[in-house]
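User:
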Amino acid sequence: MALQVKVKDDKIHLELIQCNNFTEVVQILRANFARYEPKSHSWIISPPKYEDLFSSLEDLEPIIVSEETQKKIEALKKPPIVNPYNRLDFTIEDLKVPPWKGKHPYESFQLEDIAKCVNRSYYALFNEQGTGKSYILISALELLRQKRALKKVLFVTSDSGVINIKKEFERFSNFDMSRLTVGGVKNRRPFTKDVDIVLCNYRSFLLISDEYQKDKKKGIKKYRTTPVPLEEWIEGNVSAIVLDESHKIARPTARQTYVLSLVREYFDYAYLATGTPADTEEKYYTQLRFLHPSLVHNFSYQDWLVEYANLGNRFSAFAINYFKKEKKTELTEIVKGISSRRFAEDCIELPEHLEKIIYVELSDLQRKIYNQLIKEKLKLIHTAQRLDLPTIKNLFPYFIAGVDNPCMLIDNPGAPEDVRLQAKKFSFEDHSKLEALDDLLEKHSESTHTIIWTMHPSVGFELKNYLEKKGYECFVVNGQSKPKEFKGSLDDYKDSVLSEFKKKKESKPKILIAGVQVLNSSITIIEANVQIYFDEDFNYTNMDQSKCRVYRIGQSKTVYTYTIIADNTLDGIRHQMLRDKDFINRKFGSKEYLEQEDLQALFNGSSF
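Assistant: Predicted structure:
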């Protein structure tokens, strides 16, 4: 007749042994977010809740806690970080390529971050794009190879980053490149004995995991342990896992987040890297948990939200209103303790970066299409008896299509019939933003390389046709640009197009029409110093990452960034929402961030 406390697999277990006050005990456990685990027949308790639970339960039932168990519980409250930074001695001569010299007082920022990486079992580089995160990571791996006999590395990066990271392994390290392989559609079982480094993108790792799962009896996509034979592959060697562009695991419900979380325990070292770690506070959760569960107090995502945020509205009991003030401070301290956060303008001598918004008025026909579309969709919202939040959200792509390219509405069954009829009368050459685009290209006519960003493939192809008529040499890279006759992958195609675009001017100015979703990360395009956003992505991370393709280490010219916005439309609201998210991403942990008593006004649109 007692409660038995044990620690298993870094979790606090509470077993109810002949409990006299069973109902009361269970009510208290549930009220404190304890979770019942059928496999062990015990309740899982988060370390931060343990003391409160102990006090509440000891009045009801005797609690058995051994001295050894108590020591383990205390250890769970402290994230195991390997310190001090100088534990592994190395000099610049140990690096294959010396670090870039930063500007005062951050002359040695890359060297400092390399030291932090090699002397911690896990670490995050939340440095802005263009500060050399790949160099820091690969140099750290090279030092671990030299000093700690690191042999096995799993390096996961963005879709567009695989080829670039492969080149940088060869440039910045002395790993045996014959033992590096790229996993993907053509190599679904890369974890073989003759391979030491597996390089793949996030989608490819899902594909690889599902491929190995075929050897098992369970359903392909419902495995609870990783089917990837990591234990056999690592063979007891020192190993490391790197998640480049780690914001891609920021969604707890995403399958790629879940599948990657299953492999973390196999690796001695774990590193994260992204210039845009989180545009909302909750996106830190999965990244912190990946590094070590104790960083989120072993909470599940929902329990973590309950602990950290004020929740609940008429759409969802778990909708986030704001993060509690004291918990914001706690979260920033946790993040600061396991990461570096540096900005390019602070650390690197870069040329001037001039940003400007160009406002335009919709043409008469475009305004008519846009207004009619809004009117019809608002009528739907007004007459519907019940309309859930996802349905409302799904209306916005229709609204914004009326601005970005009304032609997309012609064959779209979701658009009202009257709107589709009007869209058929629209010619892309009558687009209200083209005049502003022409003016900007003429203003920078001396520029040999220019990038035009867009979120829609159809807009990209329309722009190519329009600009080629004006004598520009155009290159298009988006999710639909790879021709059927090209035999390689989309990554291979992007690499070949970029190589051609980067070549020196021959006869015509070169314009790269780039998809924001496709070319926003792990690419350096410093040959261009003018970039124009014809339209924007709803995704803040994609937008922020894309801006730094030209403004980074190695850029020697003044960089000009223009955003063309249709005035008095949702185009402007979309831009303002992106700016609001930029505040959290850049100011997290700063005095300005912590002084925000309530961020609700920032998100509910009262600022525009």
